[in-house]
Design a protein that fits this description.
The relative contact order is 0.30. Helix content is 23%, strand content 36%. Strand 6, helix 2 and strand 7 form a beta-alpha-beta unit. The strands form 2 sheets. Strands 1, 2, 3, 6, 7 and 8 form a 6-stranded mixed beta sheet that branches. Helix 1 crosses helix 2. With 157 residues, the chain is α/β, with parallel strands linked by helices.
Length: 157
Amino acid sequence: MAYNVAMRLLIQECLNGSVDIDGKCVGQIGRGEVIFVGFTQGDDEKIVDRMIDKLLKLRIFADENGKTNLSLADIDGELLLVSQFTLYADLTSGNRPSFVKALKGSQSEPLYVSFVKKMEEKLPGKTRKGVFGADMKVHLVNDGPFTILLDSKELWG
């Protein structure tokens, strides 16, 4: 089944991560994944569910042989979720990024809230988040470094 959407997740395997707003920590994790979440026109709850399913099945953590064979659940890892409209920066027409492909805040916030809620249900006590639309300072120690971009349009057409 083809989806004409492109929700994006930028996943960074980390040893630890945190989000500060105005000098106050609002979310902090140990080993796991810092995930930047972006939405575009056409994204909906169905694609959110599919991306969550894909995310939870990813085997990106090293096993005892150093192979990327383990999932977040296998390592008892944590998640730090951060809304990130800049995943849709378009630089095809100059040097100043355009963000017209990013879903407007009033439309993307409900999807982000839903994404966070569903992740909290699937990983209770293991999911932390930033604040939608806030000026956040994100700190992380990227392990590897290991970074993956999941784009729903590339996954499902």
